[in-house]
């Protein structure tokens, strides 16, 4: 494959493509996790990588998330750039001690003498009819940990570019991949090794009447809601946050200064969700720009229900459109 190859690929294939690029071009990069080698990972994100790069670069680990986290932190502290995979979002909790107490603190603890250039890939979110612990949207807990970057791509192009940037970042990155859209659609992605900027929101659609702010798999429903609003004569600007921590609040504030209204959409539970942080910053810094109260369209304050009710839990186009209408009716 040439460096300028353009491939029509899914989000999961974009992940594989980015990992292959970094493994090929940086000998300090390695991939580890449960079944990532022989089987290519539970979602096949690492399919074929062990065969191409060998067992010393793509490592199968024991079924032990605590050990995986410890190995990853240790490798990163000694000059490697490990990319660890968690099989599902709900399996990340045994890793928290290593992430919170060590990975996120290395730079501060050593006054910059050591960093921790690791990436933890986390298949994230609901919508695939999976059992308990397999469908959680737990991004907000990581945004509360100083020293971590939290990144959530929403398309094949952004998955490729943001993963490259995450691997090259000198500090730890939690890279949460919306599994509902792993194979939902394809997009042309240039395999050129060009990273996208971290810590930047992407304005996916310009608008003048209301700002819709979202991330991850909910970008799809939010763009569809913008289309539905346009049919009613309402112009919606759509922002993909992409990097939740650190947050590019300036892009959101500039949009709200233009539209005067904001709807925040996320599938995590409402209480303590990251949407509350964005709403709080708007209250602190953009109060005089707002023509109506900020609306949030979120999951509910219950564990995500199994199977038949799962899609009822996730924000829908109809709920987003209704929230946008409320902001317009309010002022």
UniProtKB/TrEMBL annotation:
Entries under InterPro entries matching the protein: THDP-binding, Transketo_C/PFOR_II, Transketolase-like_Pyr-bd, Transketolase_C
Cofactor(s) needed: thiamine diphosphate
Pfam families: Transket_pyr, Transketolase_C
Protein species of origin: Coralloluteibacterium stylophorae
CDD domains the record matches: TPP_PYR_E1-PDHc-beta_like
Function recorded in the entry: The branched-chain alpha-keto dehydrogenase complex catalyzes the overall conversion of alpha-keto acids to acyl-CoA and CO(2). It contains multiple copies of three enzymatic components: branched-chain alpha-keto acid decarboxylase (E1), lipoamide acyltransferase (E2) and lipoamide dehydrogenase (E3).
Keywords: Oxidoreductase, Thiamine pyrophosphate
Span of domain Transketolase-like pyrimidine-binding: 9-184
Annotated GO MF terms: oxidoreductase activity
Protein name from the UniProt record: 2-oxoisovalerate dehydrogenase subunit beta
Taxon lineage: Bacteria, Pseudomonadati, Pseudomonadota, Gammaproteobacteria, Lysobacterales
């Amino acid at each position: 494959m040439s460096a300028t190859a353009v491939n029509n690929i899914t989000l999961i294939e974009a992940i594989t493509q980015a990992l292959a690029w970094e493994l090929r071009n940086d000998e300090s990069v390695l991939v580890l996790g449960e079944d990532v080698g022989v089987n290519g990972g539970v979602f096949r994100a690492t399919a074929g990588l062990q065969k191409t790069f060998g067992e010393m670069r793509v490592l199968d680990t024991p079924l032990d998330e605590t050990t995986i986290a410890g190995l990853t932190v240790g490798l990163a502290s000694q000059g490697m750039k490990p990319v660890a995979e968690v099989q599902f979002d709900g399996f990340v909790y045994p890793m928290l001690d290593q992430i919170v107490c060590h990975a996120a603190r290395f730079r501060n603890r050593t006054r910059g003498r050591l960093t921790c250039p690791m990436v933890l890939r986390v298949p994230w979110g609901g919508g695939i009819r999976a059992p308990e612990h397999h469908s959680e949207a737990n991004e907000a807990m990581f945004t509360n940990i100083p020293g971590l970057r939290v990144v959530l791509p929403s398309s094949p192009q952004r998955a490729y570019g943001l993963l490259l940037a995450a691997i090259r970042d000198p500090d730890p990155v939690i890279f949460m991949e919306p599994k509902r859209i792993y194979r939902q659609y394809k997009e042309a992605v240039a395999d050129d090794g060009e990273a996208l900027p971290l810590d930047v929101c992407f304005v996916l659609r310009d608008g003048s009447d209301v700002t819709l702010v979202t991330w991850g798999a909910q970008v799809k429903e939010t763009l569809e809601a913008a289309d539905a609003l346009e049919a009613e004569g309402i112009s919606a600007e759509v922002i993909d946050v992409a990097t939740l921590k650190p947050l590019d609040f300036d892009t959101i504030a500039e949009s709200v200064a233009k539209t005067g209204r904001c709807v925040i959409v996320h599938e995590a539970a409402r209480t303590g969700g990251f949407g509350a942080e964005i709403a709080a910053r708007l209250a602190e810094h953009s109060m005089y720009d707002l023509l109506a109260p900020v609306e949030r369209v979120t999951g509910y304050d219950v564990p995500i229900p199994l199977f038949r009710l799962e899609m009822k839990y996730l924000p829908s186009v109809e709920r987003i459109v209704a929230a946008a209408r409320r902001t317009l009716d309010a002022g």
